[in-house]
Design goal:
458 residues, 19 helices, single chain, alpha+beta, Cytochrome p450, globular
Length: 458
């Protein structure tokens, strides 16, 4: 907003205009400077205009949705009228993810989704639990009581190794640190999407442009190596990569290495980045809330009785699962979702033209006091069956929703709960008192300078 007098009274259902209200912004840049200066604060303040808000980014009109019913409309009810947002078609996104599940559209996307879905069936992922716990114990075996660690890169490395082993039956432990460093560089430009620099870096061979493409090539080397090794072996490992290698079109053609690379890259990133962030934010929130931490440790001790957690323990680790849900409510790794309208439509009584960019933000909706009492409070106990039954479906959507909901949501929840339990039964992670944790909303919601913790043996 430009100043306090720009703030209108929130719209009511009785008083609506054809064009949604919104900030005037800069004559040329629109709201780009404000969005980039304080992304999370800006999208929170926009809600003062109402549940449907219009803003302009340079020459592009964007519509922000804050009502769960309207969010359901774009993600589920009328999902056919929307494709992925313009930002996912930028040079940087296209180079990073290609034409994988996250970015592809239409029949090609439906075909790829059908091919990938069997790898995430409950029966298949149940076998992955042992690997998740094994890799967690391998990591914590190097921890020492009294040391200070940055838990975020630890969780990134762990989930990277888990996704590589469970989905591609590959051991990337030798590459994990390198991949982690490269990924940290790759996400940095995405923190400045609402700037002229972002536009220029995407379109021109600037130093930042060249740096980004160089980083992606380093990840490509590892992914193509995994594909080549599997093709050479000819073995069916029963994992997603094997299924994609064997999949055939009606004409008998198979996926090229480039197509395989795009799907592997999408799952490689989505399969570890968001899970690692949920784990990192969970440790942060537990460190801030000793009562919740004590309840967590009590459950782990009672359920596991000193043995390793397994897939069979998941139904009994109820509070641990609530910690994960509450962490994703307060610090959703994917903090926003965007779509582009194919044809004109109406949302919340307002006209939305074709080609309009439409956004919904988990960061705001999941902290809305209309749906969550004391929304800023970390309260895993809020997740009762009664609470969930009366919560609007899209008041909480950490995995997106509709036909394009995250394909690995069950896999991710299983991994988060098992890793929390495996670490929590042996360690307490206290927040380092001299380290300030700050948010970096880039491609995902990251801790800007990590989350430093003191390792204590239980």
């Amino acid at each position: 907003m430009n100043n306090a007098k720009d703030l209108p009274v929130r719209q009511t259902n009785a008083v609506r205009a054809l064009v949604p209200p919104g900030p005037r912004g800069h004559p040329i840049l629109g709201v780009m400077p404000e969005f980039n200066r304080d992304t999370l604060g800006f999208i929170e303040r926009l809600q003062d205009y109402g549940d449907v808000v219009r803003a302009r980014f340079f020459y592009v009109s964007a519509y922000f949705l804050y009502d769960p019913d309207d969010i359901e409309y774009i993600l589920s009810t009328n999902a056919k009228n929307f494709v992925k947002a313009m930002s996912l078609r930028s040079n940087f996104f296209s180079r990073l993810l290609g034409n994988g599940l996250l970015t592809s559209e239409g029949e090609f996307w439906r075909r790829q989704r059908r091919l990938a879905q069997p790898a995430f069936h409950r029966q298949r992922i149940s076998a992955y639990g042992e690997v998740m716990v094994e890799f967690t114990e391998r990591m914590t075996a190097t921890w020492r009581a009294g040391e200070t660690r940055d838990i975020h890169p630890d969780m990134m490395r762990l989930t990277l190794e888990i996704v590589a082993r469970t989905l591609f039956n590959a051991d990337v432990s030798g590459d994990a640190d390198r991949v982690g460093r490269v990924l940290s560089e790759i996400v940095k430009p995405f923190a400045s999407q609402a700037t002229l620099k972002w536009i220029l870096d995407n379109r021109l061979p600037t130093p930042a442009h060249n740096r980004f493409h160089r980083s992606v090539r380093q990840i490509d080397e590892i992914v193509y190596r995994i594909i080549a090794e599997r093709r050479a072996s000819g073995r069916d490992e029963g994992d997603l990569l094997s299924m994609m290698l064997q999949a055939q079109d009606e004409d008998g053609s198979q996926m090229t290495d480039a197509q395989l690379r795009d799907e592997v890259m999408t799952l490689f990133l989505a399969g570890h980045e968001t899970t690692a962030l949920t784990l990192s934010w969970s440790w942060y929130l537990l460190g801030l809330n000793p009562a919740a931490e004590q309840k967590f440790h009590a459950e782990v001790d009672e359920v596991l009785a000193g043995r390793k957690p397994t897939f069979a323990d998941l139904p009994n680790l109820k509070y641990t699962e609530k910690i994960a849900k509450e962490s994703m409510r307060l610090y959703p790794p994917a903090f926003g979702v965007g779509r582009e309208a194919i044809a004109d439509c109406e949302i919340g009584g307002f006209h939305i033209p074709a080609k309009a960019q439409v956004f919904a933000f988990q960061w705001v909706t999941q902290r809305d006091p209309r749906y969550f009492a004391k929304p800023e409070k970390f309260d895993p106990d809020r997740w009762t069956e009664e609470f969930v039954s009366r919560l609007p479906k899209y008041a909480y959507f950490p995995f997106g929703g509709g036909p394009r909901a995250c394909i690995g949501n069950t896999f991710a929840m299983m991994e988060i709960v098992l890793v929390l339990a495996a670490i929590g039964q042996n360690f307490r992670l206290a927040l380092a008192p001299d380290h300030k944790v700050e948010l970096m909303p880039a491609m995902s919601l990251r801790p800007k300078d990590g989350i430093r913790v003191l390792v204590e043996r239980r």
